[in-house]
Amino acid sequence: MQNTIETASVIAVVLPCFRVKKHILDVISSIGTEVHYIYVVDDKCPEQSGQFVAENCTDTRVKIIYHEVNQGVGGAVMSGYASAIKDGADVIVKIDGDGQMDPNLLIDFVAPILSGEADYTKGNRFYDLEEISSMPKIRIFGNAMLSLMCKFSSGYWDLFDPTNGYTAIHRDVAKLLPYSKISKRYFFETDILFRLNTLRAVVIDIPMIAKYGDEVSGLKVSKIVGEFFLKHLRNTAKRIFYNYYLRDMTVASIELPLGLLLLTFGLLFGIYHWIEATTQELLTPIGTVMISSLSILVGIQFILAFISFDVFSVPRRPIQIRNRIRNMYVFSTEKQQ
Question: How far apart (Å, rounded) are the C-alpha atoms in residues 194 and 26?
Fold first, then answer.
């Protein structure tokens, strides 16, 4: 497979650099010959990683991009995407420069895209239960919570480990991303999943093992949980509006508002009459209890029905396949003319 990939497709790797001077040369040297371009993005690194690579790396595949202002990992990746697309890359892989991601796994991320199975692939460190024990406990808990929120906001219910930065994307999909709207900092990996869902791109998880050494993570769960929660709520609302009301309307478009209305009514109605009965020391009528209970139960059922519909609505047909079919049709039409 490796030889086929080398001869048939142009693969590029984007390496965002910020305080990774100690590891960056080892990461570059570990990237296999199947890769044609390596974009080292110096995101205004205080260690001057870009200059360090320029002075100490002789790999002719390396191209260095300098940011005059720090833009965050998202900004660095998008700069790499833009350069890779301009140079004609077919698949663009993003690997962190801190040595936590094994470049030897690159083929696993690229193969599903080149075979037409996916538009975007991302790592998942939770496949091997034996290896999970080696992860810091705070990361396990934080990732579980973030993964749950991401399922609602992105619509990819079959994915896990949303903050995993080991990713690969097809050129046709990368061209469609709204670069100016995607979060440029720690929310980047999660936000791009939301954007991919609005494009109806196919995304799959790739099992991987992360390596934890002496590198220091800049992502502190305690500091970002509130910010992430609010951004997930925003993206959830936007995704539901885009997919179920702006672009199309299905039975799920009715189930969600009806479920929320009944659930809210049942709760407020029940609480009001419970407070009234408590303050006046009266027994609540059976009919009142039934109205509240049934409204809550039916509302929950409608909401669960909506979630079930949403789960089965995960994109299944890759964008690149749709584009390939369209291009073949256009080429055939032009040839006939």
Answer: 33
Q: What tokens does 99 get?
A: 């040595």
SS3 for 122? strand
What does the pLDDT look like over 170-191, one tens digit per residue?
999 999 999 999 998 889 999 9
Structure confidence at residue 51 (pLDDT):
94
Structure tokens at 328: 């073949």
DSSP element (H, E) containing 84: helix 72-86
Written as six digits, the tokens of 53 are: 């690579």
Average of per-residue pLDDT values in the chain? 89
Residue 209: the pLDDT is: 81
DSSP string of 187-250, one letter each residue: THHHHHHHHHHHHT--EEEEE------S------HHHHHHHHHHHHHHHHHHHHHIIIIIS---
pTM of the model: 0.87
Return the domain boundaries, the chain.
Answer: 2-244, 249-336
Domain 2-244 fold is Spore Coat Polysaccharide Biosynthesis Protein SpsA; Chain A (3.90.550)
